[in-house]
Amino acid sequence: MTNKLVTEQAFKRLGLLSSSKILICRPEPSATELSKALEALGAQCKKLPMLKIDALEISAIERQHILDLDQYQHVIVVSQHAADLGLEQIDHYWPQAPVGQKWYAIGRKTAEALNSTSLDIVSPGQDLSSEKLLENKDLKTVQDEKILILKGKHGRQALQSQLLARGAQVDSISLYQRSKPDYDQSILQQSIDDFAPDFIITLSGETLTNLLAHCSEHNIDLSDRSFILPSIRVANIAYEHGLKNTLISENLMPMDIVKCIKKASL
Predict the structure, then answer these.
(1) What string of H, E and C letters represents the secondary structure of 51-81?
(2) Which CATH fold topology does 54-179 show?
(3) CATH assignment, 3-51+181-265
(4) What is the 3-state secondary structure (H, E, C) of 85-114?
(5) What is the pTM of this model?
(6) H/E run at residue 167
(7) Do 90 and 175 contact (CB within 8 A), yes or no?
(8) Residue 173 carries which DSSP code?
(9) 262: exposed, middle or buried (C-beta count within 10 Å: 0-12, 13-18, 19+)?
(10) Which value, in Å, is the radius of gyration of the alpha carbons in the chain?
(11) C-alpha distances out from residue 69 to 14, 57, 150, 162, Å
């Protein structure tokens, strides 16, 4: 029995989150997956996704990148959505994946989506940010190597910029776009004022800024709420908007979030 399984079983027996009310702002299906995991530990959860994900039709140039897939030494997949949609597109043209490539998954959910394939996946046992990925030894010396990034439209450009600065030839395919969902004031008040969550989970900068925009528009005060965030970068966004009660989860899997909550409760 693994240590992770022992921990999960112990948490369930203790009803570890039985007094916690948690608002989850992740996009679907991640919101439902996280809600089920936290409710199994006794939490009362409410979902209020702050990102809407829509698949995009790829352009002729992007389709050519897929046809030329075997020309790339590295393929980077930035999210679970990029993995699902990217594999679907690739399957149209490549019944069998090219050999000799290294694939990199940002986030464990992304890695899980890729693990069903025969791809050579570089995926450590933790959630991997763009910054952490750039520390990978295989991506430090990439002069004249070709790299393909599977991503969402208008995503962060830091990864591509750094790889270009290292001399790589970088192409990308935008497989989906994120947008701010529409909510009327009553939904927001029910989710925040009436539900009164002990913790609000916003695991990306865009998720947090969308929530802030909605609440500003409808005069809903978030200043006394506690937020679970993915990084110092996102925590700085929170601080800039007057949110002082912030917690940074070491990783983004449910048990890591649980540990973050319990640490805050001590």
Answers:
(1) CEEEECCCCHHHHHHHHCHHHCCEEEECCHH
(2) Rossmann fold (3.40.50)
(3) 3.40.50.10090
(4) HHHHHHHHHCCCCCCCCEEEECCHHHHHHH
(5) 0.79
(6) none
(7) no
(8) E
(9) middle
(10) 20
(11) 50, 18, 12, 21
Which is more confident, 132 or 56? 56
Q: Which residues contact 10 (CB under 8 A, 6 or more apart)?
A: none
Q: Which of 223, 220, 222 is nearest to 186 (CA)?
A: 220
Please state the domain extents for the chain.
3-51+181-265, 54-179
Q: Residue 33 belongs to what H/E stretch?
A: helix 30-39
* Complete edge-to-edge strand list for the sheet that includes strand 74-77: 52-55, 169-179, 146-153, 74-77, 102-105, 121-122
Backbone angles phi, psi at 201, to 5 degrees: -100, 115
State pLDDT tens for residues 1-56: 444 444 445 444 445 677 789 999 999 988 999 999 999 998 999 999 999 999 99
Q: Rounded distance, CA 82 to CA 168, Å?
A: 21
Nearest CA-CA partner of 168 in 75, 87, 83:
75
Contacts of 201 (CB under 8 A, 6+ apart): 22, 23, 24, 25, 26, 34, 227, 228, 257
Whether residue 203 is predicted with pLDDT greater than 80 in this model: the reply is yes
Same fold, 3-51+181-265 and 54-179: yes
Q: Which amino acid makes up residue 135?
A: E
